[in-house]
Amino acid sequence: MGKKATAFGTLWKLMRREWHTLVSRPLYWTIMICAPLFCYVFFLSLMNNGLPEKLPTAVVDLDHSATSRNLTRQLTTYQTLDITTQYVSFAEARQAMQQGKLFGFLVIPESFEADLYANRQPQIPYFTTSVYFIPSALIYKSFTTMTTLAAGAAVQQTLLAKGEYERDIMPQIQPITVDMHPLGNPWTNYSIYLNNTFLPGILEVLILLVTIFSIGSEVKDGTSREWLNTANNNILLAIIGKLLPQTLIFFIMGLFCQSLLYGYCGFPLQNGILPMAAAMFLFVVAIQGTGVLFFSIIPSLRLALSAGSLLGVVSFSLTGFSFPAEAMYSAFHLLTDILPLRHYFVIYVDQALNSVPLYYCWIHYFSLLIYPLLALPFLPLLKRALRRQVYIP
Amino acid sequence: MKTGFFASLKNGLADTIRIWRQEYVSVFKDMGAMLFFFVLPFAYPLLYAFIYNPEVVRDVPLAVVDNSRTVLSRELCRRVDASPNTAIVSYCANLDEAKDLIYRRVCHGIMEIPEDFSKKIVRNEQSPVLFYSDMSILINYKNFLATLTEVTLDMGKELQSEKLVGATAKQIDMATNPIPGFSIVLYNPTGGFASFLMPALLIVILQQSIILGIGLLAGGRHEHRKLAPETRQENVWHVLFGKSACYYSLYIMTVMYMLHIIPWLFDYPQLGNQWEIYIFLLPFLLSSIFFGMTLSVLVRERESVFLVIVFTSMVFLFVSGVTWPYDRMPLVWKILGGFIPSTWGVEGFLRLNSEGATMLDVKEEFYSLWGLTLLYFFTAYGVIHYRLWKKKKALSTIEAK
To answer: Rounded to an integer, what distance in angstroms lies between the CA atom of residue A155 and that of residue A26?
Structure first.
């Protein structure tokens, strides 16, 4: 009983010691609180519209007929497009594209109307610059829809003239239709797609670096022996006492992130907040575990931080939420599973987006739990480094 | 008088060159700085290039629930499977079975063909195919949508032409496709992911490597000063010119490697004139160097540069407008982005390199970068001036003791 009380007393002493450090150095609270807040505000307000609207596009009308003007007018009604007709030739429009004034344009060729009436199949070419991914995809979609509809309207006119019933026309033009159900995100909202994983990703970078930095600073400032002594030479107690206040702060920041995503922005949250909050807690602890692991193996502050930055930054690509993991080379595909962010991403997809029963993703919760355990066998190494207290610049 | 001017010029130049050389020594003696200045710009482009090297996503898995089981429904499945974008991994008996596959992440979409699929077509009614797509990865959804649209339109045209009895092939084509629209994707015709992202990423990596390296050195110097104040008095201008000359010269080879060899090795679009790109890069490098010197006022310790700078890479990448168009951002972020060299650097480099624009086309970005160079030159001057002033004060207190 008495021994237990001292363990808790030591833990409490360590936590108070850490709390003092966190509060007294502006660097800590800037990076732990201000930096995440800034990123939340930045990314959520940047993509507030869900998809970029009114993208600068042009119609190069070489025909100047009633039909071509009608087409142009119809294009102006698309929400994604902001149509201008100021360019009078292909060359001019392409030049404007290279000057960054346009993301795409459509050319209505000369004698378009005449060719159409004479059944000479006038073509409508349209150009997009896929140097910019999202604008080009959206413009491509709008232009394709437009030209398909225009062709349909022409067929409709012909069939009507032949005396077909109106109700029989659409089944002839388009016998098979696609009834698309984008599950969980029917608006194809880019913010839902990106921020649900991107913001935790940024949190990951910050947690990883702060964990490594705070442990390494003890060595650097020559306080690591004193720290170990405070912990009665118990390395496990020392680490827990040091990281627990940080866990608390980061968990609160993570919960705040989730409340912004699912509360304020109203992003899909199918299975309730509990599975996500649990994932966030495990995620924070997992990254702290990874940080401890890194510093235990590489007890040089700079190198450990470099490794941490590498893991944090590469996570954004390797997690496979932008470029799918299945499409990567198998070596990288295998690597995705060792990233904490990957497991958080899968949990988010299952629990928040797709309402998958918990049974199917227990393995990812479990995986997040492994990271802190993984650091345990390396703690003696860390202890030795802390005892030696040698700072390598 | 004249000789005095020349003498001071000569002394100044000599002093600048001395600082330049001294900075080389401190860079090459410092493993941390070497890591940022050389290893980072060497390794990161390669790593990212390999991750994204497959460029396009092929054969996204889907499951089929075919309740119709007719010739027509099987034909539809065959064509969806044959498309390069998608692949059918399983034919399920019912929707629940297919859902289970989605839960297990075996597939990312379900195509459900209703029971009356063929009947409706024979009855001359529009016949819908249902598709449920997982939205966790937008590229997968895009592949599904493109394939489904293409396949159903194609089959529709064939069904339509079957009804035109006795028509010639030309007549059928005219009747079913009176206005052939066709898309030409410029500059990145395969729509490759790496070709789109890498050029922007390269510029951001370049800038961050400069800022991190300069920050690390400045942090180290700050710590060192706390322990042992230097006694030498430096001239602000000489420090500014000497150091920036050192950093700039370090990046000549790096720029050639990152912006010429990497795109060439991985076959990214490279339409621009390489010399124009180097000229464009001149103000970009200078503004990044002075930006780094300015930011280094925030860095009090060698290692805190990681904490302060690393996470900003994501912000800088997005504010540059490579994914979300710069013109469509909220005004605040447009203004913020305007002060970051990489915003203009990415925009200009994408157009010069990927779109084959000329210097004239990117003059706005070019001038903006020179503007930033000027701005950050003066802020860097302020920072160095402040540092030297503090040093002087510290010295005088020591002397007073």
So the answer is: 70
Parts of chain A with a pLDDT under 50: 1-2
Q: Which of B52, B135, B184 sits opposite A323 (nearest CB)?
A: B52
Give the number of other Cβ atoms within 10 Å of residue B6's Cβ. 10
- Could you read off the pLDDT of A206-261 as tens digits, one per residue? 999 999 999 999 998 889 899 988 888 889 999 999 999 999 999 999 999 999 99
Select from B306, B363, B365 the residue whose CB has the most chain A CBs within 10 Å, as the one to mutate to test that interface.
B306
pLDDT for res B46: 94
Do A291 and A379 fall within a single domain?
yes
Judged against a pLDDT cut of 80, whether residue B230 lies above it is answered with no
Q: Do A213 and B306 touch (CB under 8 A)?
A: yes
Kindly state whether B149 is in contact with chain A, defined as any CB-CB distance less than 8 angstroms. Answer: yes
| Residues of chain A contacting residue B155, judged by C-beta atoms under 8 Å apart | 175-176
Q: Indicate whether A289 belongs to any domain.
A: yes
> Quick one: which of B286, B210, B206 has its CA closest to B33?
B210
Residues in A 311-330 with any Cβ partner in B closer than 8 A = 312-314, 316-318, 320-324, 326-329
Mean pLDDT score of chain B, rounded to an integer?
89
pLDDT tens digits for range B112-125: 999 999 999 999 88
Q: Do A126 and B179 touch (CB under 8 A)?
A: no
User: How high is the pLDDT of residue B227?
Assistant: 63
Distance from CA of A38 to the nearest CA of B (A): 10
* Structural domain that includes position A83: 55-173
* pLDDT tens, position by position, A268-282: 999 999 999 999 999
Cα of A70 to nearest chain B Cα, Å: 15
Question: Would an 8 Å CB–CB cutoff place A35 in contact with chain B?
Answer: yes
Contact A324 B104 (CB under 8 A): no
Q: Is residue A185 domain-resident?
A: no
Q: Write down the pLDDT at residue A1.
A: 43
A309 at B interface, C-beta within 8 A = yes
A297, with CB counted inside 10 A (0-12, 13-18, 19+), is: middle
What's residue B3's pLDDT?
Answer: 63
pLDDT classification of B1: cutoffs 50, 70, 90:
very low
Give the C-alpha separation, A371 to B343, whole Å.
37
Among candidates A27, A94, A329 on the partner chain, residue whose Cβ is nearest the Cβ of B53: A329
Q: Which of A127, A146, A173 is the last residue of a domain?
A: A173
Top residue of B73, B123, B307, B312 to mutate, by most chain A CBs within 10 Å, is B307
- Regarding whether A237 and A361 lie in a shared domain, the answer is yes
CATH number, domain containing residue A93:
3.40.1710.10
Interface residue A24 vs chain B (CB under 8 A): no
For residue A252, is it within any domain?
A: yes
Cβ <8 Å between B137 and A47: no
Residues 6+ apart with CB under 8 A from B238: B12, B15, B16, B19
The CATH T-level fold of domain B60-176 is abc type-2 transporter like fold (3.40.1710)
Q: CB of B20 within 8 A of CB of B246?
A: yes
Tally of structural domains, chain A: 2
Is there a domain that residue A61 lies in?
A: yes
H/E stretch holding B350: none
Q: B51 vs A91, A329, B261, B269, B316, CA distance in Å?
A: 36, 7, 17, 18, 21
Burial label, B97 (beta-carbon count in 10 A; 0-12, 13-18, 19+): middle
Contact B127 A175 (CB under 8 A): yes
Tell me the chain A residues in contact with residue B50 when contact means C-beta distances shorter than 8 Å.
329, 332
Each residue of B322-365: pLDDT tens digit?
888 888 889 999 999 999 999 999 999 999 999 888 999 999 99
